[in-house]
Amino acid sequence: MSETAKNTPEDLQDVNAEDTASEEVAAEATEEAVEDAAPQDPVEALEAEVAELKDRLLRQAAEVENTRRRAKKDVEDAGNYAITKFARDLLDVSDNLRRALDAAGDTSGADPAMKTLFDGVEMTEQALQKALEKNGIEKLEPLGEKLDPNKHQAVFELPHPEYPDGHVAQVMQAGYVLKGRLLRPAMVGVTKNPAGEKPSQDDTPGGNVDTSA
Predict the structure, then answer these.
(1) Are 171 and 143 in contact (CB under 8 A)?
(2) How far apart are CA 159 and CA 114, in angstroms?
(3) Of 135, 163, 178, which residue is a domain's last?
(4) On the chain, which terminus has fewer CB atoms closer than 10 Å, C or N?
(5) Does residue 59 belong to any structural domain of this protein?
(6) Tens digit of pLDDT for each residue in 120-133?
(7) Judging by DSSP bridges, how do beta strands 181-184 and 175-178 pair with one another?
(8) CB-CB contact of 137 with 87 (8 Å)
(9) Do 182 and 151 form a contact (C-beta atoms < 8 A)?
(10) 3-state DSSP call for residue 151?
(11) What is the pTM of this model?
């Protein structure tokens, strides 16, 4: 007897059921493919396009604003710091005038001609300082302040009974800032007291020293 003849009615029903299930699966896959291939809703497509265009517009607007701010800052910096090199040259003149005054010392007993010369140099130095201040150049006088590496250049250490360690006890050369930007650091001597001889904060001149510099 052949294999076909051996199949019972129950076997034939199982085969038909499997065929039907396969057809249903194939039909579902076909429907999903048709749905995926179906055109997107026009309203949703327009909304997505509008959202994308809006995002692009916002990004471009932000970029334009950033460019405008950078350009404005560049113009301001050019105006504020254009005299930097010239200002540094003037600082040398100011230093020389101050050295001349310091070298002259006490001129109270000097002859009238020397006294007149001293007064003239002093007036010139004062006029130069006023001109510097008028153009936004501020002189740093950090005596008694805590050392600030952003404004001060420590040249040496020295013991000083009136200042705590790490404070400016001597100014060798004044520093300057141009509209908030450091033009030249102050050259200073910094306190380094022997152990056991460190003064308290209240012993410093003027009471508490401003350490925020």
Answers:
(1) yes
(2) 37
(3) 135
(4) N
(5) no
(6) 999 999 999 999 99
(7) antiparallel
(8) yes
(9) yes
(10) coil
(11) 0.58
